[in-house]
Each structure stands twice: as structure tokens, then as C-alpha cells.
User: Fold these one by one.
Assistant:
Number 1:
Amino acid sequence: MHEIIVAGAGPAGSVAATVLAQAGRDVLLLDRTGFPRDKACGDAIAWGAVRLMLDLGMGEAVRAAGFYPIDAMRIISPRGAVFETALPAHEGLTSCIVPRETFDTLLWTHACKSGANFQIFQVQEPILHNGRVVGVRGRNGHERDIRAQLVIAADGATSVIARALRPDKAPDRHRAVALRAYVNDLDVLDHMVEFHFTHDLIPGYAWIFPTGERSANVGVGMRLDLFRRKARTLKQMLHDFLSRPALAGRRHSQSQVQDVLAWQLNFGSYVFPRVYDGALLTGDAGGFINPLTGGGIHNAMITGKLAAEVALHALAEGDTRRQVLAPFEAGWRERLWPNLRLGYWLQRWLVSSPRLTDWVVTLMMRYPRLAQVFASKL
């Protein structure tokens, strides 16, 4: 019997495990694979996520990793209007582009160094006793049960724990799909991210996030209900985007499209319980993706830290019932709900058509402060 099981060692799970281990608690961190491992993502890391890493004592590791800093962004409307703006530094910190293979490994390594016990383990379902989560069942060579006083679910957008506990499934308008690739021998805008709002993706977009001098994370993403109406795959959409004359001219003879991966996103705009008797849902398992940008790493880390803090209180009380864990619900709503709700309505209405998106970008060009809503998510 462990005090706490953290299922999933991505950003939410590793942060939760770090906070718990640093407090001296018995925490078992589980993931279906070892590290380093790739993860489908746009790789954009908000400055606030870097701040949180420093707060956890990761300053030396962050500096040694050499994150690629981002200090500006470009938005291209469907008709080709271009808006550019600088991204302000916060406390001397900027947003960055960091491949998830590097980023997740840093967080996982720090969790283990902090005292978390890690095991490769494929969680298949939560163990329930009288409606209360008392552990997880899964496989590591053979099937076995692992029990704990509290389970923190951080096992991603397809979380088996969330599926077992949640009363329903989010409608497609509160979900998205995306696909990313790494493209080399490509002319990039140094330290500037690009958002391309094209007719076939709106209210989604295509992106070019530089990872180095001549390489980038390039991808496409769109809301799931709209994607289902399309007759094309995400790979075809990415190919079409890269074949646009403005993009094709930036690729050179050695340019290759590599490591193509797709993933699902669960928007934080859909309301459902994230707190259960004996369990908390964090990160993508709790659906904390921003509906406007598709970003979720910083939100995942915030919910991981908050879950750990609530867990510490519950363990001190000797009670992990839903009522005692309720501060997690109140905490994420206070920290995240205003931006999640705003992001949902912006993508539903303000960038819901090519004509409206053109108007918004033109308005940004005339009134740059309007861009701060978008820029603040990076």
C-alpha cells in the first residue's frame, strides 16, 4: 500500500510527484514507457511553466538544457494579412520551444531525484471499492493491482482512469485533433512563432514553431466536430499547408518532414467533475487544454502542483474523500477557468469563419493591444 499513486509521468504527473516527494511523502510514479520518449505536441512552453520549474528547484537543469527562446509572434489571416508583435518577458523569462522528449525527461528526472519511486506500468483501470478509488490495475509483464490512499490521474487525453470515473464524454465541439512534424532545412523566423489561419482549418490553425536555426515543429490542428465533416486527413492538411507557395519557397533541397504524430485534445471548456473519492484528474486527463490555442502544458503543470498540495492536506487529515479533496476543484477554477471559458468563446465566435478572422487580424494590426489575449497564452 502506497500513500499516493501518480498515474502518468508527463508534465502534470511529474510535477505532482515532485511536490509530494519533496514533502517527504511515499509517492509511486507510473508510466507505460520509460524516458526519454517522444510526445506529440507543438512543443510551445509558456514562460509560466519555466517559472514553475525554477520554483521546483530545476534552475540548473533548465539552464543546461538550452531552451529555444521565443520573443515574438506572427499571425497570418486567411487573406494573407500579417500581424507581428513582440512577446514581453516576464520576470526575465520568455516562452520557449522545447521538444517534449527533452522537456518531459527533465521533469521526470527531477521527480525521481526528488524521491519519487518510478515504475514502468501500463495502467488499465482504477480499482474501486464501494465507489472509492483505492488503487490501479494494470500490467508490467503480468497483471497486478497496486493500492494507495489516493490516486492522481495524469495519464493523458485518453486516460483510462478518467474514462472509468467520468459520467459522460465531452461533445466533439469541446475536443480537437492535431498533427505535428519536425521539418529541417527550412527558413524560419528567428525566435518567432507563426500562426497561420487558413480557410480549411478555422477556427483551428497551422503553426511553425522554430526549434533551431533551420528547423521547426510544424503542424495543423482543428476542432473535432469540424474535422469530422472534412473529407481529408490531418496528414493531407499538413501536406497542403507545406505545399503553399509561401511555405514551399522556404524549404530547401535537404528539407524533410519527419516524426509525424497525431494526438487528441480535450478542451477545458467542458464542465465535468475532476474530483472523486480517492482520485483527482489532472493535465490532459482532466481536460485542461485552452480551446483557443490548444496549449495545455502550463495548465497541466498548474493542476499537477495543485493536486499535490490538496493531496498533502488530505493525507495530513487522514481522509481522501471527495469533500476533503474539493479544494482542487475550487483551485483550478480560480486559476484556469476564466481563460478557458474566454478561449472557448473566442474560438467559437471571434475566429469562427475566415471573414471574421481576417477582421480580427486587421483589428490587431490597428490596435496591437488586442493581440495580448492571444499572446498571453504563449
Number 2:
Amino acid sequence: MTKGIQILLADPLIIVAITAGFILLITLLVLVRKPQSSWAKLFFFWILALPIIAVTLYLAGGTIYKNISSATKGPVHWHADFRIFQCGEELDLVDPSGLSNRVGSPVVHEHGDNRIHIEGVLDRFEEASLQGFMEAIGGTLSRDRLNVPTNEGLATMKNGDLCPDGKEGRLEVFLWQTTNDVARQQKLRDYINYAISPETLVPPGDCIIFEFGSINKEKTDSMCEQYEVAEARGDLIIVR
């Protein structure tokens, strides 16, 4: 079997499309021929039913196999909020468009809400990392660089670039994390590989602050909106 055929057979959408085309062709043939005998009717019944049964089993088996072999052993629904600052100015990601209303992939994306959405089956936990998220939305995250798509184009930040104050900027990433309704922050050293906490709600889901600026610090004064809302309701204690 050639590589091209293997790729075709590995794509469920292509399999479904081929099967639908085959069923349509047979249906048209039945309408034209109008079989009268019982054996002919039985023949056309099974020639229509077998592909449907086969595709159903293929899709069910593929779904089960994908879940079992995935890193998460099935679909997940995780969220984390974030904010991005470039030389003191907060950036807003490019607005989502189209029927999907998302920026990124079906599994890893953002909906114009400053929230990382991990929704589906993860083949690798790296997909839920900050680097994985940035790559999914068309950006870049490395140890000395952050590029994010905005409505004004790609915002680029690289260590050593000058801020408007004439000083060299540096990328720093801070994490607000909740334990037992108490939120504390830490400065992420290996922020590239950090995977968001497996939480559906924010909080307790993470609040991640990206800051590119000329001040090297160990803490940030910035906070995600939902953390502030939870604090105002009395549902969260924030240790600043």
C-alpha cells in the first residue's frame, strides 16, 4: 500500500466522504434500475448497509483507540487565564473569526477571552504547555522571545529589545496558582514547558502573566480578572 493511500485511510473524514459517495452512487443506481425481485432488493440492501456498518465500527474503534493511546486517556476540559504586557502596555490577541470562533486548533485555542482552552484529547501533554499554546495560536515562545498575533499584526518581544524608556527589555512569566482557596504567585523559570493545571474553572485554574519590560523582578502586581472577581466575592484569598 502506498504512503498516499495510507494517509487517505488514516483520515476519518476522508473515509466518511468516500463511503457517503459510494452510498449515493448505489442509491442512484437503485432509483434507476428499480429492482423488483426479492434477491435484488436484498442485494442492494446489504450493499448499502455493510459500508455504513463498517464505517460506524471504524469510527467507534478509532475513537476508543485514540482515547486509550492518548496522554490524557480521554478528552479533557482545562482552562487557564492569561495576560500579556509589552513594555507596560497590555496586548490583546487577534480576534477569532469564522464559525469556530477560536484562534488555534480544535483542542488548544483561545476565544478572544484571554483564556487558554484545552478541550479534547491530548496526544502529548506538551500540547497543554505554554509553548504549545503559543504555537497553536500562531505565536512563538522560547527562552528569550515571545511573539503573539494581534489585530495590529504580530507583536514581537525579544530579550535585549529596547522599550520606549530606552532600556533593554526582558521576558518574564509569573504564575498565580490556587490551593485550598488561597492564591499565591511564583516566577516561572522553565515557563516554556509549563503545562497548565488540569482545572475547568478559573480559579482554581491558573492565572499566567507574561511581562516583557526593563525591570527584572521576582513578583508581578498584575492579576487575572477572574481572580480579582473571586477575591471580591470572598471566594479567594490572594497572597500578594
